[in-house]
Amino acid sequence: TQLLEQSPQFLSIQEGENLTVYCNSSSVFSSLQWYRQEPGEGPVLLVTVVTGGEVKKLKRLTFQFGDARKDSSLHITAAQPGDTGLYLCAGADNTDKLIFGTGTRLQVFP
Amino acid sequence: DTEVTQTPKHLVMGMTNKKSLKCEQHMGHRAMYWYKQKAKKPPELMFVYSYEKLSINESVPSRFSPECPNSSLLNLHLHALQPEDSALYLCASSQEFIPGSLSWLAKNIQYFGAGTRLSVL
After folding, report:
1. Which residues of B touch A96 (CB under 8 A)?
2. Who among B4, B41, B109 is closest to A45 (CB)?
3. Arithmetic mean of pLDDT, A33-56
4. Nearest to residue B87, comparing CAs of B118, B109, B41?
5. What is the mean pLDDT of residues B76-105?
């Protein structure tokens, strides 16, 4: 079974701080995605990374795919209260079903 | 329009009730999905429909019965549920579901609805 472990599980920070969320697996993924889910909503796709070593930027968010395509990270610069939510990495398993990581719950206080 | 609409938003039902969850999309997507999300957990796949045919059933108990009447609609019929079935049920759609195709995930973004929060008493 392919698993995606995220760390940390919970993160509470002040507005303006930087943070990094990690997504790790012992399996190779052809691509990984990052989603954000707010309370009472479904997950919303932020980015898809496909190539090992790839770095993608989305405003204050920087996503990296590990060289071996087994891990990924999400770095947020100068976090804002609007960044609060559940961050989920996800990948297609060996039968092409989408599996989600264990999740990181981020709270940014003003 | 990238909207997936789920109804109802909230549902409370007894263990002997029969109810249905509905999901609708008008993006021309030919793949639709049901996920179950327990509190403080990630979503878990339940069913995948591809071109209105059931493609994947993740060993879901028969008290959950999916139905895809047409390419825009996906239902989940519920009967004799247990309290442990209480969860957020999420519907998603994507352009296609083509297992085995290269970079399938990267080419087929899944759009999620807001979910139905189900409580079984």
Report:
1. 97-101, 104-105
2. B109
3. 93
4. B118
5. 88
